[in-house]
Design goal:
The protein contains 17 helices and eleven strands. With 387 residues, it is of the alpha/beta class. It has three domains: 213 residues, HUPs (Rossmann fold, 3-Layer(aba) Sandwich), CATH 3.40.50; 66 residues, no CATH class; 71 residues, Structural Genomics Hypothetical 15.5 Kd Protein In mrcA-pckA Intergenic Region, Chain A (Roll), CATH 3.10.290.
Length: 387
Amino acid sequence: MEQSDTIFRILTRGVEEVIVREHLENSLRKGTRLRVKFGIDPTAPNIHLGHSVPLRKLKQFQDAGHTIVLIIGDFTARIGDPSGRNDMRKPLSEKEIKENMKGYLKEAGLILDIKKAEIHYNSEWHEKKGLAHILSIAQSATIQQVLKRDDFKKRIENDSDISLLELFYPVLQGYDSVEVKADVEIGGTDQKFNLLMGRRVQRHFGMEEQDILTVPLLEGTDGVKKMSKSVGNYIALTDEPNAMFGKIMAIPDTLLEKYYELLTDEKADVSDPYASKIQLAEIITEMYQGEKKAEKAKEFFIDTFSKKEIPENVPEHILAHGAHATILEVIGDICKEESKSELRRLIEQGGVSVNGEKKMNQNEPHALKDGAIIKIGKKNFWKIRFK
């Protein structure tokens, strides 16, 4: 790819805004080797496709020869990013943070060349430098400046509490850019305030201000809310291939072009939404699971949902309840992350069947036999086994 094409792709594909566009473009055209920063707080144990959007942009910089600086916010995660929040986030314990961090680098390595990236944990400086260090950072911004962020304005209007820790969050994140000498920082559109704070903190410490590149937020499988584990509309990079393929097939047709733009290098052709979605699911599943597993997932989906057949190699689930459990207890044992109210609604709407027979009475005891096939929703089959 020609240098001009590479620069155009970096600055435009899947990009919401660049600050300052002219400065960053000039740096890229001069061939300056840039230090490009991205920070992620380990607030959940897995990376999903929403996280992959800024990581893919980082990869574009990395492929162009720039230095990628990945910061794991193990210190700032103890406070919690107030971006997009209408209430105080519950602080995470060190144990929760360590547990969440376990798979981060491995999963980020599905996109980035981790061996060629700089990896930092922001506890390296925030934890070790002490109170005097925190006070020097605090001088870089005023209360009035911090309270200008929309999240805080809304909470003040609604008489919702804002903790002093939350006020500190943007300046602590901004200081990360000082420590790693960032030339560019990447983040979602919801991070714009924090990214701009990085410029202010750098200026306070006598550094040249970083350029900023924001990427759009990715809606989840519901097509409405930002992809999030807490909402349950996410597709994890480590999802089982059949599940990943099926979840992508479940996204609304209106999101097809956006998913192609942000998650692939291909151009969307939505003249035939079904064919386009099949191609999208195959591309993404192959990226993270490999070609063979993607092909099998495609076959599984077509056999299951196009031909209306029960597939071969249905995953097994060992049922903790006895053979005479209610249908609500059975699917609750399988779908542990779903709420009881959601599962009841699914049953009432005819979304659960056993060996092809719909089960719509949540409290009726069912004498399930070992090897029974239970279908939950439109896409998920399980073979029931007993201990």
